[in-house]
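Q: Can I see a sequence and its folded structure?
A: Here is a first one.
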Amino acid sequence: MSWIPPEHWSSAEHVHELMHRQGIRPQLSPAVLSAALDLYEDAALHKLSRVEARAFFSAHAILVPQGLETLPLPWLQQLPIRLWHTRKPHWDVLPYLLKSVATEAGVLRLYFPQELIIKEARLSLWDRLRVTLNLSMRPNLWLPLNPSEEREIWNRHPELRNELFTVRS
């Protein structure tokens, strides 16, 4: 076992390491994912979704995570639903503290203050949550875009055409 600073666990680099260890490879570049997420942005809907997300965390979690306002609209809308699905069916609240969320290089970053300081070789509960949530958010780096998203990015971002259909390795 080796000591890893807590900041690393919530980093994009750590999430990429987790995915790599699971045999999951990126299908999109961060630039293409950013363009895909931008397709859904709507300022008024983002504001409403922030209010709804805060209400969810107030009702079903111990605290409201910092950084909700920084999430792209699709992820902001999906985060409460995806987190809710990670609990046992009979639970009325989430069983863990999520102190902050952020995005970095196409990755959903999650910081859990109760995460242990010692990093074990096995995949921890916190790391499983990071993998699950990053894979379940749509769109994400690890799944191809749907045809309508591809078409829209092709039309709006000619500078991304070369990498749009390139599968990452």
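Q: Show me another, different protein.
A: A second, unrelated one:
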Amino acid sequence: MPRIRLILEDDQGKPLSTQTQRVYELEGECQTLDEIEQATETFKKQALPEIERSLLGQAQQQFVASARG
């Protein structure tokens, strides 16, 4: 079963935090076009909200740190 590993990094290539690395296992065997399309659609629905949440959390931390001084 194919897997996708995502690591959110800053501009210097350092992980944003310990929780920004995630491995997603694609559903199915991914041997036909239909299986690949279904697996990638499921991946997007699962991964994109988590990525957005991580990025928003990081932006909030940076905003709070800059507001403090």
